[in-house]
Amino acid sequence: MASNDTNKVLDKKDITKLAFFSTFLQASFNYERMQSGGFLVAQLPALKKIYQDDKKGLSDAMVDNLEFINTHPNLVGFLMGLLISMEEAKENRATIKGLKVALFAPLAGIGDAIFWFTLLPIMAGICASLAISGSIVGPILFFLVYLGVFFMRYFLTHLGYNLGTKAVVTIKDASTVVSKAATVLGCTVIGGLIGAYVNINLATEIYVNEAKTVSLQTDFFDMIFPNILSFGYVFLMYYLLRNRKISPVVLIISTFVMAIVLSFFGIL
Fold this sequence. Notes:
Elements: H1 12-21, H2 36-50, H3 55-65, H4 76-88, H5 93-132, H6 137-163, H7 166-197, E1 205-209, E2 212-215, H8 217-224, H9 228-242, H10 248-264
Helix pairs in contact: 1-2, 1-6, 2-3, 2-4, 4-5, 4-6, 5-6, 5-7
């Protein structure tokens, strides 16, 4: 559905402008239509150029783009590029509207999985670890990664415009590979962070005779699996949070209370 050369009125500068105007996506966020205001504002310069001699066409496009939408801010360029290519090709309004409604939710899910749930949390963990150890590389690296994510919208918007509807297939294929690799990396990083920053050490010792005592921590638990208590506690919290739907606030307060009480009685 990408536009033919004979119908093109937009150039690369217009698509670049669209890419950076996509930052306005959540500028008028509301609970009635979510991101619709910013979604329209981002596309408006391109729509005005496409429908410069057709006020009715511009009005219809603006009305359609003011309908409810809630998608991912880093991937919205794909959708905007795709829709603008269809607007430029003067596709049927029902087709454009239907494609927008069909795609914005899946793209939101893909974006959340890639950025909010994998890439940025993993980088935050790595960079926070560097920062805590006193390295200035930590905050600089995170800033550069976040800046890279921001400028991705330039390439994604051009890709969406140039590929037309094929962009959707491309992003789904790519997201599967990226998500799998990021999941493996994320598990590795989380395991390292548990061992480094979650410390549960039992102070309890078992009296054997006058010459010997047995430490539950070093002589028992660490001999079975180093940091097994830390590992077990983290996954207990994960289980309670995900399966039992216990509030994170409750878990945090409970952890503080148990730490204080068990330390007071000399168990930890």
